[in-house]
Amino acid sequence: MSDFADFRARGRAALLADQATHDSPMVEGARRWGAAAVLRPSGEVLDRLAELAGTIEAPGHWVHGRRALHVTLRSLEPYRDRIPAGDSLRRVYGDALAEAAAGLAPARVRLAGVSPHAGGVLVCGHPEDDTLATLWKRFAHAMESRGVRDLEHGRVRDRWYVSLVHFAAPLADPLRIVEWCDAHADVDLGTAELDAAEIVQFVLTATGIRIKALEKARLA
Fold it and tell me: Which is nearest to 9 in space by CA: 116, 161, 124?
């Protein structure tokens, strides 16, 4: 978990210095919470993630339920309220993802260690193979070959994680969040086998974030 040590230290420092950030409800054209390519855990690892998330005392914030827990592959576009089945970009995303996933085995990612950061709390992901990195590169190439640039164009994604909570208002008690993260800093939730990648849309409900699946590609 050494690759997250500096990240965790910076996150703790930000919260303890009262420098937390928070999300706002989605609005058309905002750069956050637009359509994305993600992979969602399942089985016993998902059960453990959901159970862990359920122990965070963060009223008023977006604590993610089991079907909203995910690893982000790429952020694709600014927020849109409607992405219908016939949408041209949605078709490009789905086709590019299918091309990228073809022939790849499921990604194995050990989920171990909790870290705070300025905008929330996450579980650190430690890939046990090259599948995520390969899928990320293939998907970027497939998108570019179709003339589409996503929000991560030019970025190298080298840190993988599952977010448990995103702050949705100023933190009333940052120390409590930091202490909870410290108490779970060494938690090991096991290895997730991620056997599908999806194009998804994020929907804000009265209690948090819901994921709406738009397109899907199997890893097998």
Answer: 116
**Averaged over 16-23, what is the pLDDT?**
97
Which one-letter amino acid corresponds to residue 187? Answer: V
Beta-bridge mates of residue 204: 209
Dihedral sign for Cα 106, 187, 178, 12, please. Answer: negative
| Of residues 96, 47, 50, 49, the one with CA closest to residue 197 | 96
Q: Which residues pair with 124 in a beta bridge?
A: 161
Closest alpha carbon to 154 in 50, 46, 75 = 75
Q: In 3D, which of 111, 27, 106 has the Cα closest to residue 69?
A: 111
Local structure of residue 67 (DSSP, 8 states): G
Short-list 74, 105, 106, 69, CA closest to 189: 69
Amino acid at 82: R
Cβ distance 72 to 166 under 8 Å?
no
154 pLDDT above the threshold of 80: no
pLDDT confidence of residue 215: 98
